[in-house]
Design a protein that fits this description.
The chain is an alpha+beta fold. Helix 1 runs antiparallel to helix 6 and helix 6 packs across helix 7. The longest helix has 26 residues. It is globular and about 60 Å long. The strands form four sheets. The protein has a seven-stranded antiparallel sheet, with helices on one face.
Length: about 290
């Protein structure tokens, strides 16, 4: 689901009954917010870009609103309007290509001109530019983990682990004063390079090694710089964010990757958010 392998672990007999419901909730979220599905709410917003507003569910409206708030918080390093660019590059599809500079420039300019008009009373969303589109892929799994964690807690589940393709959320404390230990995957794919400990909450990682393709000897990864329209010129190879807010953690992992070591570290310190950064030189930075 959501373009990745998803798993859920519960630790008490009887709690298994909630697992099926969790995957139903996850499927419903994907049906609403997937930019790759023309019939989804995000798909319908994008299809109507430059033409008219689209009425959406309260959940989708609030998620779009939150994404725009985080865009402002990160000064555009996280930008949910990258939809046309991600579709143009199509990285991870098996049908990737390096777009022409003209194609990229056109979409970057449209993205910068575009506004997302929210009408809370009518629960509608309108993108003012035809060549701009929403893509919540960089926030969707974190949001989904928050929704599932809330559902499990409200259902009386005291201890669970949600893993949405590396977006890990520990529900409840491990107990007896112990912390959850989460391994961070090595970019080389040979195990983990370090571990982090959390009492409860999300550990979300973004890395250039997750989805990429190679053309004429050059590696192009899936994390795009909204300013240039090209994959981020690597300064960091892995960014992991630790937070009780999975939605924020997911978006920040992308934003910090885009900002790079110096500006990304400054943002995290300003927000007082825990993180582990792995630099291109192999240095591990813990905040």
């Amino acid at each position: 689901m959501m373009g990745t392998s998803c798993s859920l672990t519960v630790f008490r007999r009887g709690d298994e009954q909630y697992i099926g419901e969790c995957f139903d909730i996850l499927s419903q979220i994907e049906d609403r917010i997937s930019a790759k599905r023309s019939e989804s709410e995000i798909g319908r917003i994008n299809a109507a870009a430059g033409e008219h507003a689209v009425k959406v569910s309260r959940e989708t409206f609030l998620l779009v609103e939150r994404a725009l708030e985080i865009r402002d918080l990160t000064e555009g390093a996280f930008d949910p309007l990258v939809g046309r660019l991600t579709a143009l590059w199509n990285i991870g599809s098996g049908d990737e290509k390096v777009p022409s500079p003209e194609e990229i420039s056109l979409l970057v300019a449209a993205m910068k001109r575009a506004e997302v008009v929210l009408d809370e009373k009518n629960s509608t969303v309108f993108i003012t530019e035809r060549d701009a589109a929403l893509d919540l892929g960089a926030i969707g799994k974190g949001y989904a983990s928050d929704v599932l964690a809330a559902y499990l807690s409200e259902s009386g589940v005291r201890k669970a682990i949600i893993n949405l393709g590396g977006n890990v959320y520990a529900v409840g404390s491990k107990g007896r004063g112990k912390l959850w230990n989460v391994g961070l995957r090595s970019p080389e794919g040979d195990g983990i390079f370090t571990t982090v400990s959390v009492e409860e909450g999300a550990v979300v990682t973004s890395g250039a090694y997750e989805r990429y393709f190679i053309s004429d000897g050059v590696m192009y990864h899936h994390i795009l710089d909204p300013e240039s329209g090209y994959p981020v010129d690597l300064d960091l190879v892995s960014v992991s964010i630790l937070s009780r807010d999975g939605t924020l953690a997911d978006a920040l992992s992308t934003a910090v990757f885009v900002l790079g070591r110096e500006r990304g570290t400054a943002l995290l310190k300003r927000l007082d958010v825990r993180a582990v950064l792995l630099t291109k030189e192999g240095e591990i930075i813990r905040l």
